[in-house]
Design goal:
It is built from eleven helices and eight strands. The chain is mostly helical. A hairpin with a 5-residue loop joins β1 and β2. α2 packs antiparallel against α3 and α9 crosses α10. The radius of gyration is 49 Å and the shape is rod-shaped.
Length: 345
């Protein structure tokens, strides 16, 4: 037995039929289990750490406010400050002539601004766990661990095993037309909804239904719910990505159409106002006005002279008989001389 080379039983490469038993980890039938474990671990990291800095979220009620954590349309979680700084750095790179690819790799090009990031408010529960000491080195102590759970089913969302959604409340279009007093009253009534938990499990949604969740978490639409940490296996993440890209394209086209309609309306208004505006006569130059006033002066002098002559003729009977011509139009020259001689005598 010695010195003939033999086989090493611990080396699975040289064992006949190694890894073909269904209970072994490298069997093809266990590929789905391995993918599921990988998705679970990936989801746990997404739900407990920031996607930019990798820092673990502090879910302590006194240290974590309602606006510290935000989510993107792809279900990744960020610290609000980290996301805001990443957006500022990206805008600076674009303004300086760069493409902003370094920041876009961490934040994601699908995030256009803070309007695409929505606040995440977990329902946090505490659980006590034993530790090696109580801080003084004597005996055993307990530490409190805070975990994100579903407020309806009490399922552990932070473990990554529970599919969960973030409820994004719909904006009320009539709120812009309300007065400040009425808006302040509405804010007081909806304070519990605005700052209450908005992350629930998929099981709770199926049990309660969308309509059943409206009184406590609404108003919201099913299309505005964001799936947290969607799994890569099964095409769930690709489906979410495709829907969001189609939505961004639809919003871009609608924005361009709105600009075109606004520009067309402005042009129509200007054209209508120009047609309605009365035409004003342009003032003539000084030389042209003086030249035009000369014929007017001459005509006025001629009219005045003619009126004076007509007055003199009417006052003098001799002139009126000679130039009046009212009674005798066919009088001869001899008759005119005789009449003039008779009047002078």
């Amino acid at each position: 037995m010695g010195g003939d080379g033999g086989t090493i039983s611990s080396n699975r490469t040289y064992l006949r039929g190694a890894g073909k038993a269904c209970h072994t980890a490298d069997h093809p039938s266990n590929a789905a289990k391995r993918a599921k474990l990988e998705d679970t671990e990936r989801a746990r990291l997404i739900l407990t750490t920031c996607a930019i800095s990798g820092a673990v979220f502090d879910l302590t009620p006194n240290n974590c406010s309602a606006e510290d954590i935000v989510v993107c349309p792809y279900g990744k979680l960020y610290k609000r400050e980290e996301a805001l700084e990443a957006l500022l750095r990206r805008s600076q790179q674009i303004n300086n002539g760069g493409g902003g690819s370094d920041v876009a790799g961490a934040l994601g090009s699908h995030v256009r601004g803070m309007k695409d990031l929505h606040p995440v408010r977990f329902y946090v529960t505490d659980s006590a766990s034993s530790s090696g000491g109580n801080g003084n080195g004597n005996g055993r102590g307990t530490t409190v661990r805070y975990t994100a759970t579903c407020p309806i089913t009490s399922a552990d969302i932070g473990s990554g095993n529970v599919p969960s959604f973030v409820i994004v409340r719909s904006k009320n279009p009539k709120s812009k037309d309300k007065k400040k007093d009425s808006s302040s009253n509405n804010d007081d009534e909806t304070t519990g909804v605005e700052f209450g938990p908005n992350v629930i499990s998929e099981r709770a949604i199926k049990e309660m239904g969308i309509e059943g969740l409206q009184p406590e978490y609404g108003p919201f639409e099913e299309k505005n719910m964001i799936r947290l940490a969607p799994p890569k296996a099964g095409g769930a993440f690709e489906e979410i990505q495709r829907k969001w890209e189609a939505r961004m394209e639809e919003e871009r086209v609608a924005k361009m159409q709105k600009k075109k309609d606004k520009k067309r309306k402005r042009g129509t208004t200007e054209e209508w106002s120009s047609k309605k505006k009365p035409e004003t006569m342009t003032p003539l130059p000084a030389d042209t006005a003086a030249a035009a006033s000369i014929p007017a002066k001459k005509s006025s002098l001629v009219d005045e002279a003619r009126s004076n002559i007509q007055t003199k003729v009417a006052q003098n009977p001799v002139l009126s008989s000679l130039f009046g011509g009212a009674g005798k139009k066919n009088q001869s020259e001899k008759e005119k001389r005789d009449a003039l001689f008779t009047r002078n005598c």
